[in-house]
Amino acid sequence: MLSTEIDQAIKKELEQHLEFGGTTRFLHWVRAFMIIFLIASGFYISYPFLQPNWHSEPVGFLQAYNRSFHCIAGFILIGASFFRVYLFFFAKSSQPERISITQVFNPVIWVRTIGAYLFIAKHPHINGAYNPLQFCTYFALGILTLIISLTGISLYSNVYHEGLGALSGAMFGWVEVVCGGLANVRAIHHIVTWAFIIFIPVHIYLVIWNSVRYPNGGADAMVSGMRYVENRRV
């Protein structure tokens, strides 16, 4: 009887915690839209299936325009990614993300997290923004972004030989050497693109899955920046 009265006296309250700062959320969506555009425009560059209207004058520059916008989007992605890394290490609002690193080295959290995704265990309490599986996935995504950026700059510098292209060739000419030739650079660029194509639907599915199973602001955290944590108070 006493325990029942105590249980009834316990109130559930939700507290808001800032998980992602405004700049972090903005850069997330910038990178998301740039990646989608880069995938679409990149496939068109490799297989230009559209034919501009025939004209006697040299004005059919559809492929050239597509390549130019592809390059612009690529440099925007590189700039946003650099700034995102800076925020991760130095922004005060990114502290929940930095705290997540400690859980990567906790095997118990790993086992319970995987068990939660397999519907055989409850999701463990985590400190920070990400569980260890999420953190390692996003870290791997950062490595893929670095690879596709380096190979993209190498391809860019082999088409444009003046200005930024010349500077890129001088600074990143080693990429072509390391990859064993320009053909290999393009192949690696293409393969990593497919890694992004696989990641996007899986990422969207898991965000929705987490939000349905653990309705604490998961899906809209990258919009509002807030995570809702349950507090029990007597």
From TrEMBL:
Per UniProt, the keywords (alphabetical) are: Cell membrane, Electron transport, Heme, Iron, Membrane, Metal-binding, Transmembrane, Transmembrane helix, Transport
- InterPro entries, alphabetically? Cyt_b561_bac/Ni-Hgenase (IPR011577), Di-haem_cyt_TM (IPR016174), Hydrogenase_cytochrome (IPR051542), Ni-dep_Hydgase_cyt-B (IPR000516)
Q: Pfam families in the record, alphabetically?
A: Ni_hydr_CYTB
Q: Which GO terms describe its cellular component?
A: plasma membrane
Instruction: Identify the main location.
Output: membrane
Location of this chain's protein in the cell: Cell membrane
**Cytochrome b561 bacterial/Ni-hydrogenase domain sequence ranges:** 20-225
Its transmembrane ranges are 26-47, 67-89, 101-120, 132-156, 163-185, 191-212
Any one GO molecular-function label of the UniProt entry = heme binding
Q: Which GO terms describe its biological process?
A: respiratory electron transport chain
Q: How does it sit in the membrane?
A: Multi-pass membrane protein
Q: Which domain of life is it from?
A: Bacteria
Q: Which family does it belong to?
A: Belongs to the HupC/HyaC/HydC family.
Stored NCBIfam families: CytB-hydogenase (TIGR02125)
Tell me the protein's name. Answer: Ni/Fe-hydrogenase, b-type cytochrome subunit
Q: Which gene encodes it?
A: cybH
